[in-house]
Amino acid sequence: MTNETSNNALGFNHFLFLWFGAAISIAEILTGGLLAPLGFQSGVIAIVIGHVVGVIILVLGGIIGTQERIPAIVSTRISFGVYGSYLFSVLNVLQLVGWTAVMIIAAARSANEISKMLWGMDQLSLWSMGIGGLVLLWIALGREGGLKKVNMLAVFLLFGITVLLSNVVFKDSTALSAPPIGGMSFGEALELSVIMPLSWLPLIADYTRFAKSRTSAALGSGLGYFIGSCWMYLIGLGAAIIAGNPKPSTMMLAANLGLSALGIIVLATVTTTFLDAYSAGVSFANIFPKLDEKRIALVMTVIGTGIALWVNIEQYENFLLAIGSVFAPLFAVLLTEYFIIKNRQLRPELLVNWSALAVWALGVIMYHQFITMEFVLGATIPVLLFTSLLYKIIWGYTKEWKSCKKYPTAS
């Protein structure tokens, strides 16, 4: 363990607050709202089952970080080699910059709606730049003790707001028995529930590598995210069914929060987007280790803010599915290698494991096939199982399908 790790060892409470705060976001509420065509009862079942599966996989990825003291993308070197990890670093940076933009766009839209209602001020671009600036400040402060306390305080405030929003949405409980309106299969709803925890897989070890123990990191991260994310989905689902509108700004104005709603939206966005931008820096540093993670994260935030000024999020659901198609088979291979085959060595001489990359590519293709089939279990669950089984079967036959660095031999 490095000195930094020793001096900054994180315990159960930190991970509980960190991941509960990460889950409280506008994006989670909006995704829960997408499940409304399924009806409330079936929607709840899809949310719970999907999150159980997704969070278990998420926690396993975090355990690798704690045991090996390495970031998430670096851990992919175990299965895919150094160059393989470079490929996934690029893909992860792209999705994290995308998430940074999505979070800033969603928050800016909600804040703009509230400012229009309060003061007649319609300044979407200004809100995007302001929220991006606050994320920059959060990253610049780093992981110092003061920020830990501020983050915990933020989570307590967000918890209170979550209770308040729940009261606004569910005060008319009779509406929750409304029948499904159709237009969405159970498998699609299940997939949208699995994807959200899955999207954090390339990040979680970036933080659990600093844990005091495997148990504290696993329980804190798993409980914090499961409770927070399910809660956000339920709020979005309920709002979409009852009011036909899962927008957080609408709910907060209905709760007569007024000016406080702006602070809530901004706070929830900053605490979540910080993780995206920081981990984008960590992934980029996997390719260029001499670069400083924090400085890269600042640059990624600027890029994400710039994207937020020029794009919309009407294709948000497709963005989520694209993430699932890449990272579900990737971590199926890695978790199989680490926990089932029990190959846990980071071999610096391993450049590319071609069999692992082939299985991953096949998993990506399968994912999109299952999406088009509208399979009752979604796409992630069957792809995880099939990819893991396939890799376990061929592992013994493809040990030589590797490109390794050749070291000069002694004469």
UniProtKB/TrEMBL annotation:
Gene3D superfamilies: Hydantoin permease. It is a multi-pass membrane protein. The chain crosses the membrane at residues 12-38, 44-65, 86-108, 124-141, 153-170, 190-210, 222-243, 255-275, 296-313, 319-339, 351-370, 376-397. It is found in: Membrane. The keyword Transmembrane applies. Keywords: Membrane, Transmembrane, Transmembrane helix. InterPro entries: CodB, Pur-cyt_permease, Thia_CytX. Belongs to the purine-cytosine permease (2.A.39) family. This is Hydroxymethylpyrimidine transporter CytX.
